[in-house]
Amino acid sequence: MKNIRNFCIIAHIDHGKSTLADRLLEYTETVSERDAQAQVLDDMELERERGITIKSHAIQMDFERNGEKYVLNLIDTPGHVDFSYEVSRSIAACEGALLIVDSTQGIQAQTISNLYLAIDNDLEIIPVMNKMDLPNAMPLEVTDQIVDMLGCDEEDIIEASGKTGYGVDKILDAIIDKVPAPKGDPNEPLQALIFDSVYNSFRGIIGYFKILNGTIRKNDIVKFIHTEKEYKADEIGVLRLEQEPRKMLAAGDVGYIISGIKASSEVKVGDTITHVANPTQEAITGFEDVKPMVFAGVYPVDAEDYEDLRASMEKLQLNDASLTYEPESSAALGFGFRCGFLGLLHMEIIQERLEREFDMNVITTVPNVSYKVHTRREGILDVYNPSGLPDLSQIEHIEEPYILAQVILKADFIGQVMKLCLDKRGILKNTIYLTSNRVELSFDMPLGEIVFDFYDRLKSISKGYASFDYHLNGYQPAKLVRLEILLNGDYVDALSTLIHQDNAYEFGKKICVKLKELIPRQQFDIAIQAAIGSKIISRETVKAVRKDVTAKCYGGDITRKRKLLEKQKKGKKRMRQVGNVEVPQSAFLAVLKMD
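Given the sequence above, the corresponding structure tokens read:
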């Protein structure tokens, strides 16, 4: 056990985590030349397309130094704030972390928040300055930033390049010398933490675990403490590029278990595995449940696919523990699910994965956050959906979630970024100059304001340099109203939103204009209205497609033309009463991307 090292790689987006992981796998000859490809651990099609890591990936490497053999368990983690739950789970399975900082960009917001996660879990931190081969690297500046943040010595920082492989040998030496071996006793009762799971259509659910104490052998009868279900360990093994079966795993090992579990509700990330015959007395603690930030309804395009969508959601939740969902119904869209996501990118990825991996065609409603509504009779209600808002006469006041947002940026862009945050009802708390040209701004902001187009605008006004991170910071009272969209007088609940009173008029007008462009013309006029309560605040009309019924009248009395036009008018009126308006999926999506 003294030769096992469990470590993860943490960093901001695009600082070269996956590329460095590739070099480590090549250097330790874990991946053959035939299997080698860029971002070898990113096995999802979406990850390769977008060039980002969405899932944490665990892999075991063998390394020999001075005649002694070491087993290194590496977990490559995502960098985007929307996948921070993946990072926290990976950190729970490790004793050390490589903190990667891009030498051309320096420390960014997600670097800091991932570092705090690691420090909270008492991990040994090894700072690595990556991309040293680039001509615009700033080693001296970035070294100062790392020393300030970590309080380490300059000599502790390893210079490396994920592209060329420079410094990889030093990183491996540092892992062996600095990361502590796992503590634990192979002779104690079994105690293993499930930190991830995947669904395999042939073998059922595969759980990934780290053993803290005890030993597990093939065909042992084990029990999951949280669900109190018992299983036979049909196959256990370690995670290489492919899964590699083993007869036995002991304390300190990271591996997988296959026991033919079919129901996704039976495996919970953070659960503890133990033996039935000699169980451990206590479950492993310190693994917190995920708190979703953004809520949206996900509905099947075809109502008959509801059960298929439920099955797909269950399988997807196994693979992504930060997704939460519960059934709901909508007047316009039928039955579907109210889903909780960690952010807008997370929502987009889930929607794409449903389409690609499960062939599900889905409609997603306007995303919003959860509000606390103080009512006169029923106490405090949690409202995720505009249609769940009680009658205005029953509401005392509404509270909305606030976040503490950290933006790290170049000093040149301070003015524009401040204006953006203040326009979004942010309150500037703090300005810290990290170096002469890098500033950290802290804002108190409503979470609901960053759901729409905040991140994209921040990136564009700072030319991609600003980095953004946030965490929840309680609830505060707010003047919120329900903005409703009506088509021909019918309320479309999928497009209604809860919005701050000051922004409602402008936002309502924008939605009406956008829908006018996107809703196809019918044989009758379509009135698109935005309303707050009974007051209409904006209206647009999609004009009818008309046939020239007077074309056959050549000359003659005006009353003949009048008669034909009146007849057409009556027909249009009748058609409008029976005709229904289809809102295309592109209209729902366009409302999400309104600038």
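The chain is about 25% helix and 35% strand. Try to locate this feature in the token string yourself.
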